[in-house]
Amino acid sequence: MATILAEASAVADVNVSHGASPELVMQRPPTRFAGVTVIVPCFNEQGVIADTVRQLSEILEATKRPFELIIVNDGSTDGSTKELSLCANVRGLRVIENSTNRGYGFSLKRAVRDAKHEIIAITDADGTYPNGRLSELIDMIDDVDMVVGARVGLNVNTPWLRRPPKWALRKLASYLSETNIPDLNSGLRVMKRSLIKKFIHLLPDGFSFTTTITLSLLTHGYDVKFVPIDYYKRVGMSSIRPIRDTAMFISLIVRTVMYFKPLKVFGPATAALLALSGAWAGFSNYLTGSIAIAPTLIIAMAALQVLAIGLLADLIDKRSPQSAA
To answer: pTM for the whole thing?
Structure first.
């Protein structure tokens, strides 16, 4: 124990000498020489998964860090399993098999629990992300808590039908989290394993894993860096269901922020009800010459009840061990 404390003190002294406070050093341990675990969920990615594995292995070799590459085969029913078996000699590769299709988030969480290294990087198997920039993002994690490849580069291949709902989702999330979020659910990012495990009980099994971890870190004051990247046309068919998944993402954003910052939701709802109460009073007075007292009071009381619930939720959040941490 004395040796561990001495090493920790030495690390703190080195970082403080470069201008960092001891408190910051304790909150963000150095990762400059830490190992990297890259996780790639795979569901029916025949024709591209083998190339992705080999490309990522070469990229990780060039980082000069200890690494492992975990492919989570999420119940693929095409030739993905066979292609992965042909990559058995790729250095650092581990394949985790889900007996059935359990979902994107489930696969990531399973691999995170099984990972060997503190730095966790994720990407997709479909060739959409510029994996060549992964080493650049990994180096940036030394100074922040999460690095997100934001799909706002010069070459971004996003279907036009998806752009309006994605824009609306970003604006809603940016307002609720009080942070400008250029890309809410990018699948190319680098994170700390300890932080993922801190919020893992909140992270869903589906595609909204990335949305949830982004909002969880931002609403808790962690430092998230967004780096512009390109986004290419995918190989194969997408598993995204635009209408259903957009509705689910909206619900998820509101619920996640309510969990961490309930007054950001209950506050505007209270203001809207009070405004409606005043408008109803004015409208009824204009039509009949007298204020409709009963409906006006009912709406005003509803506003006060919503505010009371919001204050209670905020109190519970502030007193929770998770919030205190």
So the answer is: 0.74
